[in-house]
Amino acid sequence: MSRFRISTDERSNAKLAKSRGYGYLVAGLSLASGNLSGHQVCAASAAAKCIAPCLVHTGQAAIHKSVNRYRIIKTQRLFNDRESFLADLRWDLKALVRAAGRASLKPAYRPNVLSDLNWCEIVQEFPEIQFYDYFKDQSHMAEKFVLPNYDLTYSLSAALCSPDRWTKALERFPRCSAVFSPEVYDGWFKDDPSKVIQFNGVTIVSGDRHDLTFLNPQGVILALRAKGHRAIRSNPFVYGSEVIS
């Protein structure tokens, strides 16, 4: 039986599994993105045009319909029985700390794998855990950025931020990420994922080597390779060759 009640661990997420090589044991919370559950968990998703290409439709969820059904159940429970849900989340976080200690690893947790909610209350309760997230919703930025154990990476969208505005984005956000089409990403990083790219006045590094965004320097854009439906060339969220040329 899983040591977690509602969280996803490295056994079901290949990218999380890479974290052990960097000294971390990682888990995360995968809710049903957008308003798939009848509750909106990604306030900025419509403007960013990231609903259709969301990762909720990729990986195991693309194979097993039960994955998203369970995510929907979890999300509905968060909104309809919040205290019970948070009790299970706290249980998971305590279990993560214990498991990391047994493995001589550091605990890290990503509370918004597929959502964009404010978890500052929980983050403050567990200073021994390194929390991290990608985010688009800017409504709680001031509260989030002052927490020393919460690392945040702003998610850029080709629909909202053209490459000539990346420098301005990095002036406002310590670190940004962007999803690139396979042809663009592979052209940069296929032969050497550790390569550092200089493009349009900004520094770009691969964000697919591991999931630990907080190990990357500030002032860079993390490049993520489009996966599944995200790889569609005409997707307005993804930076394709036609966008960055």
In brief:
With 245 residues, the chain is of the alpha/beta class. The chain has nine helices and eight strands. It is globular.
What's the total number of strands? 8
Domain count: the total is 1
Work out the helix count.
9
Biggest β-sheet strands, sense, barrel: 8 strands, mixed
- C-alpha geometry: globular
Helix content: 25-40%
What structural category characterises the helix and strand content? alpha/beta
Strand order of the largest sheet: 1-2-3-4-5-8-7-6
Order of helices and strands: HEHHHEHEHEHEHEEEH
Describe the structure.
This protein has an eight-stranded mixed β-sheet with strand order 1-2-3-4-5-8-7-6. Helix 3 crosses helix 4 (82-102). 31% of the residues lie in helices and 17% in strands. It starts with 13 loop residues before the first helix and ends with a helix. The protein has helices at residues 14-17, 45-48, 65-80, 82-102, 120-125, 141-145, 166-172, 182-189, 241-244, and strands at residues 24-28, 106-110, 130-135, 150-155, 176-180, 196-199, 202-206, 220-225. The protein is globular and about 50 Å long. With 245 residues, the chain is α/β, with parallel strands linked by helices. The protein has one domain.
